[in-house]
Amino acid sequence: MKQNKKELGLEILRFLIVGGLATLVDYAVTWAFKNFVCQNLEVNLAVFIYTAAGFTAGLFTNWFLQKFVYRYITKDQQRSFYVFFKFVVLSLIGFGITWLGMRLSEPLHDNVLFDFWFLHNIQLWFWVFKVVLTIIVLIMNYIGRKLFVFNQKKEKVKDTSESIEDEKAEE
Fold first, then answer.
1. How many Å separate Cα 7 from the centre of its chain?
2. Angle at Cα 20 formed by Cα 150 and Cα 62, nearest 5°?
3. CA distance 21 to 19
4. Which residues contact 16 (CB under 8 A, 6 or more apart)?
5. pTM
6. Coil, helix or strand for 158?
7. Alpha carbons 138 and 132: distance in angstroms, whole number
């Protein structure tokens, strides 16, 4: 089923709204973990923990709100482990990009060149890197979810128990 420009535009708007809410949850959890939970940890471990905590909170927020983005999602797709698995795998790729970007940018956060007019105190450069990575992952997620996770093909989503019953019936 092909979408017209208006439907596609509304879908993208809904994706941005849902993604914005999930991003706020992600950023809030990331901020809390970075400033309260991970302060005294080794840098590699701290970056992994605060990125993973924010990612996980954002992932579940996003999953539960996806039915508002892709209006053609069936109840079978919403309940399907296979669809959720594809959603998580695509999200893990986004997590990897975010974690790697945050890890590579970590030494720049305390660089003298980036410490201009008290910007260090508000962690501006940390958030600049986080926003840039969010935009990259947002584009990847929309395309990936549209093409691979919530595609509009009318294929039946089978439950594992249905597959086993079908195989027994064929014997």
1. 23
2. 40
3. 5
4. none
5. 0.71
6. coil
7. 10
What is the dihedral angle through the alpha carbons of 126, 42, 23, 112, rounded to the nearest 10 degrees?
0
- Separation between Cα atoms, residue 56 and residue 161, nearest integer Å: 28
What residue ranges do the domains of the chain occupy?
A: 5-155
State the Cα–Cα distance between residues 11 and 71, nearest whole angstrom. 8
In this structure, which amino acid lies at residue 137? V
Q: State the Cα–Cα distance between residues 156 and 171, nearest whole angstrom.
A: 22
Summarize pLDDT for 17-38 with one digit per residue, the tens.
Answer: 999 999 999 999 999 999 999 9
Side chain identity at residue 39, one-letter code: Q
Q: 64-82: per-residue pLDDT in tens? A: 998 888 877 777 777 788 8
